[in-house]
Specification:
Length: 298
C-alpha cells in the first residue's frame, strides 16, 4: 500500500469518505453513529482516505466495510487485529484503524487482543460491544450478562461475562477509552484522541442493539454514562484510578479517555534492528518473478 501526495493532504472533507453503497443495519443500530463518528474524527484530524486503512472484522459492524471511502480490509472472524497490527508494522505512514465486535474479539480472537495490547502496536482499535452476536441473530457473547435469555440460551446465560476493562487493564495498556454509540460528538472526540496517541489505542463503544439486546437499550446507557472530565479530580494518567472508575457497569458508567500513558513507545520503535533504518518495511519489498515456480506444477 502506497501513500500519495494528493490535494486532500491539506483539505480533507467529509465527502472524501463518501460511498454510494447503502448502509443496511437495523433501524437505530449503534453502528450508524460509530461510522459517522469515525468519519468526523478523520476529517477533523485532516487524514485523507489515501492515508487511512480501515480494517473490519466479521460482524454487524463489518457490513459497513464497503460503505466508507479509503483503503478497507474485511477479515475473518476474530482475526482483524492480527492483520491490522501487521499492516501498521509494514507501513507507518498509514493510519490504521481496526473494528471488531465483542463476540469475535473476546471469543475467537481474544489471543490477538492480548498480543496487540502487549505489543503496543501503533493502531486504533474500536470494540463494538453490543453484548451479543448480532449478525447471527442474538447468540450470547463473552460480554452478555449472566441470567439473560438469548436465542441460543433460552434458559438464560449461565456463565459470568468478561468485564472488558478489567481484562484490558490487566495487560498494562497505553491508551484506554470508553464511549457510547448514542453520542456521536463524544465518540468523535474520543476517536480523535486515539488517533493522535502514539501506540495501541483501545476504545470500548457501549453499543445499543435494537434487534437482539433488550437488556441495555439506548436509553439505558444514556441515563447512566458520565464522562470522567465531569468527575472531580480525575487523573487519566493514573492507571489504578482508571481501573477503579471503569469498574461500575450498572449505576454510573465512566466514559471518556480513562487512561493514557504519554511515555508510550510503540512496537516498531522498540526493535533494535530497525532503529537506524529510515524507511518502512513496505519500502523493502521487491518483485520476484514466479514463472519458474508455477512451471514446476504444470
Amino acid at each position: 500500500m502506497n501513500t500519495c501526495d494528493c490535494h486532500h493532504k491539506t483539505d480533507v472533507r467529509f465527502s472524501d469518505y463518501y460511498s454510494e453503497n447503502i448502509l443496511t443495519w437495523c433501524t437505530n443500530c449503534g453502528n450508524y453513529g460509530i461510522q459517522a463518528a469515525i468519519k468526523r474524527a478523520l476529517v477533523a484530524e485532516n487524514i485523507p482516505p489515501c492515508r487511512t486503512l480501515l480494517c473490519f472484522d466479521v460482524g454487524c459492524h463489518g457490513n459497513g466495510a464497503d460503505k466508507i471511502g479509503g483503503y478497507r480490509f474485511h477479515g475473518i472472524h476474530g482475526r482483524v487485529l492480527a492483520f491490522a497490527c501487521g499492516a501498521s508494522v509494514a507501513n507507518r505512514k498509514i493510519k490504521v484503524i481496526a473494528f471488531g465486535g465483542d463476540g469475535g474479539t473476546l471469543g475467537e480472537g481474544i489471543n490477538h487482543l492480548v498480543s496487540a495490547i502487549r505489543g503496543n502496536y501503533d493502531i486504533t482499535f474500536v470494540l463494538h460491544n453490543n453484548l451479543n452476536y448480532g449478525l447471527t441473530t442474538g447468540q450470547a457473547s463473552a460480554t452478555t450478562k449472566s441470567g439473560i435469555k438469548m436465542n441460543s440460551s433460552p434458559d438464560g446465560v449461565t456463565s459470568d461475562p468478561i468485564h472488558v476493562m478489567n481484562f484490558v487493564f490487566s495487560l498494562n495498556p497505553s491508551f484506554v477509552a470508553r464511549t457510547f454509540s448514542g453520542d456521536v460528538k463524544h465518540m468523535s472526540g474520543i476517536f480523535q484522541e486515539s488517533i493522535k496517541h502514539n501506540g495501541f489505542s483501545f476504545i470500548e463503544v457501549l453499543q445499543s442493539c435494537p434487534s437482539y439486546n433488550h437488556m441495555t437499550p439506548h436509553q439505558w446507557y444514556q441515563s447512566r454514562v458520565k464522562d470522567v472530565t465531569q468527575m472531580s479530580g480525575y487523573n487519566f494518567r493514573d492507571i489504578k484510578a482508571a481501573r477503579q472508575a471503569a469498574e461500575d457497569l450498572e449505576v454510573q458508567i465512566a466514559i471518556g479517555v480513562l487512561y493514557q500513558n504519554s511515555k508510550s513507545v510503540p512496537f516498531m520503535q522498540r526493535q533494535a534492528n530497525r532503529l537506524k533504518v529510515s524507511g518502512d518495511l513496505v519500502d523493502e519489498v521487491k518483485v520476484f518473478p514466479t514463472e519458474k515456480l508455477f512451471d514446476t506444477f504444470r
